[in-house]
Amino acid sequence: MTPLDTDFFARDAVTVARALIGVRLLVDGVGGVVVETEAYDREDPASHSFGGETKRNAVMFGPPGRAYVYRIYGAHWCLNAVCGGQPRGAVLIRALEPTDCLAAMAGRRGTTDARLLCSGPGKLCQALGVTGAHDGAALDRPPFALHAPDRVRDLAVGPRIGLNKAVDTPWRFGAAGSPFLSRPFPRVAAGAPAA
DNA sequence: ATGACGATGCACT
DNA sequence: GTGCATCGTCATG
Questions:
Q1: What superfamily would CATH give domain A6-175?
Q2: Which residues have a Cβ under 8 Å from the Cβ of A48 and sit 6 or more positions away?
């Protein structure tokens, strides 16, 4: 199953979040390889869809495979992929390894340091030109384009970032050891309590 | 009408 | 490591 298959996003958010690592994501030809994601679902107190449908989160109650784009801290945009499954969910795209049209991203971000272009959910939206205008747009057609991973990557797993709820749920996924993550993954100490 | 609160990023120590 | 700008969205009066 490739990201071009319509059923790719019909699965649950955790499955999709893992499957997205290594996928190349482009917006109008600009972008890179997904190296960090987080899963959210409707029964998750940290999810925007927890507590029912509102004007902002309406896209998450629609069909899977669409972009849910929201503004955070009055300053930044964040891009999610709406998923199917039960309960319904979505995946936050947190970081990319820049591969396509670096110059365009550098211009939008105001830096040429590749590690600073897409290493965070707000940064990658700025670099790719994703805004609220993309909210509800289908991810399998222009301006969006997805390409299946070209190779297998080791997966890192850890707790999600920036939350005040469900802080221990290990639904953050990443390409292990990538220098393009928003933050390193915590190293699990051998013999540590399972908590 | 108004207040609380962010799925962040950046400057600074 | 810490502090905080900034404003749309939502809940409440």
A1: Methylpurine-DNA glycosylase (MPG) (3.10.300.10)
A2: A40, A56, A57, A60, A68, A70, A90
